[in-house]
Amino acid sequence: MTESSPAPNPVSVLVIEDDFDIRQTLREVLEEEGITVATAENGADALNMLRKVRPELILLDLNMPVMDGVEFREAQARDPSLRQIPTVVLSAVDRINERAAEVSPAAAVRKPIRLAELLSVVKRYTA
To answer: pTM of the entire structure?
Structure first.
C-alpha cells in the first residue's frame, strides 16, 4: 500500500487584501455565492498560504504593506506551480488599467467594487 499526500484544501478563491473590512466583505459575498474562500493580508502571507491551498482564482489588491501586489505577481510568475492561477487585480488607483498592465492580470476590477462586476469575473474562473 502506498501513502499519498493529502489533497490540497479545496479553495476556489484566494483574496489578498490588507484592509480587514474589505477582505471580510469579499469573503462573505463570495461564500454567499457558494464559493470557498481563503484570505491573506499581504503577498507574503498569500505565498505561505499557497503552500497549503491551490485556488482556482486569486483576487489581489495592488497596494499593501509587507509585499504588495506587484511583488506578489513577480513571485507568482517565478513559480511554475503558481503562475497558472488566474489573478484579478483589485485597486482604487485612478489608472487601474495602466497599473494592472504592469502585472499582466486576467482582469482588473476598480474599487469601490461593484459586486455584479466582481461576481461576473469570479464566476468566469471558478467552477
So the answer is: 0.85
